[in-house]
Amino acid sequence: MTHRIDFSKLSVCDALDLAILVEEEAKDRYEELADQMTIHHNEEAARFFLRMVQIELTHERILTNRRRALFPNRPCVVTRAMIFDVEAPDYGDARATMTVRQALEMALGGETKAYEFFDRALKEVHNPEVRDFFGQLRSEEQEHQALVQAQIAKLPPEPVITAEDVSDEPVAH
Amino acid sequence: MKSSAAPALPVFQAKDFKSDLKPIWCPGCGDFGVLQAIYRALAAVGRPPHEIAFVSGIGCSSRIPGYTTAYGFNSVHGRALPIAQGIKLANPDLLVLVAGGDGDGFSIGGGHVPHTIRRNPDITYIVMDNQIYGLTKGQLSPTSPRGLKTVTSEYGSVEAPVNPLLYVLAYGANFVAQGTPADMAGLSEVIEEAIRYPGFSFVNVQSPCVTFGGEEAQVKAHRAHMKTLKSLGHDSTDRLAAMGLAQLYGQELHTGVFYRNPEPPPTLDALFRERQETLAGKALPRERILDAFIQK
After folding, report:
1. Per-residue pLDDT tens for A31-56?
2. Which three-class secondary structure state does DSSP give residue B107?
C-alpha cells in the first residue's frame, strides 16, 4: 500500500530509498510479531519471526550499502509515511497459538504483497533504470515466495485438532 | 518525486510516538493496526509528544495511551471523556485524544457522549468498536449484533445494538468518521483529519476481537467487503446523507468521513477563553480580593 508516491517521477536514488524503507517496515513488523509471540509464550513462532527479522535486516543492509555507494551525499526524500504494509505481514493473521506453518504462511503473504507492490509500481515507472531496479526487486520477491513455499512443503501436515481448538483464550505474561 | 527539489521532511516520524511498552493484546487483534494508524496520524499532525494528552477508560483498547510517548491517563471505566474535557479546559494548548472501546464509550460512559458533543471541546474521540467485552472474556457489549452468542447470551442476543455513528450524528457531532485496520492508510488519514478538525471529532474504528469475534468480523473479512465513502460519492458536508449511510452500521462497512461540518461552531475551550478574557477585564486586582470579601 502506498501513500502519495508518484512512481512516474521516482529517481534511482528515490527507488533505492523506497526499497530500503519497505525492508525496514517488514523488519519492524517481524520484530513486533516476535514480541507478541514471546509475550504469549509461543517460543517456536517467536524464533521464526526473529529469523525473519535477520533476513529483512540483511536485505535492508545490502540495499543501504548500494545506496551509499551510488549516492553518498544525496538526501533522502522518501519517508515511511509514504508506504503502508508493503511487505510487512498483516497483523490480523497472527494468532497466539499459531504454528510455524501458519507463521510461514504469514511471511508468504508478506512476500506476495511485496511482489504485487513492485508489479503495480512497474506499470507507472517511466525511468528505465528504475524500471530495471523494480523489475529486479519483483523477481527477488518471487524467489522469496518460492523459498517460503519450499519451507512450508517440508513441514508435516497440521493436526486436525489445533491448539486453538483446545486452549483457553490468550493470556499475556 | 524529484531529488533536485527535495521537499521538507516531516519533523516527526511514527516511531517517535511509539513507547518502549510492548502491547499485550492477543496476536491478531485489530488494535495493533489502530495503534499504527494513530502513530502515523500523530506524526503527520506534527505536534511533539509532550504537547499531547491521551486519555482512555478501561478495556483492551484503553491500554493504548501507554503504548505512545504522549502523556497518558488510563483512567476510570467510561469516564475518559469528562477527564479529557477537564484536561483541555485546564490547558487548551494541549492536543487531547481520547480512546476506548464500545462498552466504555456507549454503555458505561454512554451518558458522557451527548454532553461532550453539545459542549464541543476540541478533542478527538477514537472508539475501537469490537462489538464485545473482550477483556472480561467475551460478554455482550452495547454494539453486539442481535443474535450474537456469547457467555452472557447462550441462545443469542435479543437486543438491538447501539449504532455509534447514528448516535453521535443525532446529537450533533460536527466530525464523524469510521475506519478499519483492514485499511491502515485510510484509517490513519481519517484520524489525522479528525485531530485537525477544530472541535469534537469522533472516529469509530471497527477493530476486530480475534479471540471472541467471529471470522466474519476479522480484518480479512473487512478487507473483502469494506466500501469507502469516497467511492460512493458521498457528500461529507450533508448531515442527513451521513445519517442515511450511518443507518447501515452493522450491515455495511463504510469507511471515511461521514460528516464534516464545513462551518465548525466555536469550541468549548475557545468560548471559555473568551469568557475569561471578558471577565478578567472587570475583575478586581488579586491583592484587593480579600478586602472586598471582608467588606461584604
Report:
1. 999 999 999 999 999 999 999 999 99
2. helix
How far apart, in whole angstroms, are the C-alpha atoms of residue A70 and residue A62?
12
Strand spans (E) along B63-151: 71-74, 95-101, 123-129
Q: In this complex, is the C-beta atom of A5 within 8 Å of any C-beta atom belonging to chain B?
A: yes
Q: Tell the CATH topology of A9-72+89-156.
A: Ferritin (1.20.1260)
Residue for grid cell 478586581:
B284
**Chain centroid offset of residue B232 CA:** 24
H or E element at residue A163: helix A163-166
Angle at A146 between CA A60 and CA A142, to 5 degrees: 55
State the cell numbers at B105. Answer: 464509550
Q: Per-residue confidence at B105, pLDDT binned at 50, 70, 90?
A: very high
Judged by a CB distance cut-off of 8 A, whether residue A29 touches chain B is no
Residue B210 C-alpha, separation from nearest chain A C-alpha, in angstroms:
8
Handedness of CA B78, B80, B81, B82 (dihedral sign): positive
Q: Measured between CB atoms, does A4 come within 8 Å of chain B?
A: no
The yes/no answer on whether domain B9-264 falls in CATH 3.40.50.970 is: yes
ipTM for this model: 0.91
User: Domain spans of chain B?
Assistant: 9-264, 266-296
